Amino acid sequence: DVKVTQSSRYLVKRTGEKVFLECVQDMDHENMFWYRQDPGLGLRLIYFSYDVKMKEKGDIPEGYSVSREKKERFSLILESASTNQTSMYLCASSFPFGVVSPLHFGNGTRLTVT
Amino acid sequence: KQEVTQIPAALSVPEGENLVLNCSFTDSAIYNLQWFRQDPGKGLTSLLLIQSSQREQTSGRLNASLDKSSGRSTLYIAASQPGDSATYLCAVAGANSKLTFGKGITLSVRP
Prior knowledge:
The complex is a heterodimer of chains A (about 110) and B (about 110). With about 110 residues, chain A is mostly beta strands.
């Protein structure tokens, strides 16, 4: 079974802190994604990556950056956390476009910024 | 821009009922459509994936259909059980594997 592991289930950070959310997958997937999920807004794509050191902006990249130094690891960085970044963050991975492959999600990190 | 709609937002049914969850999308140029289940406070679990060239997929008591021309998909759950209570999301994949998600339908199956 594919496993996507997010390093923290719950995080509480203060406004202005730099925050790192880590995600690791064990299926050699090329694609990795970061979403945030908010009540009434659904899932929104923040950033995605097709390969090591490759990244592309999703629908709401402002205030975030990402890093993919190794194929299995995709990190989301909040450069200066703000209260409007309080949310559930979900990492996902899949095989590349052209391969029939469902998206596999981690269990999420619930981030609270105070 | 692709938009995915799931109506109603919530549904409550008695145990044993067969039910249909609906999903509609605005752009028929899709690569595939996926149905997911999400339990409270957890991530999403993939249920079924239908490629754009397919009409339906089945897994156990679940059957998903796809009508690209009308921009619709349905998830059929046979003989519903309390353990089926969860939020069900559909998502359509466009170019480069990017998915656009609906907001989900929260299903409650009453014993």
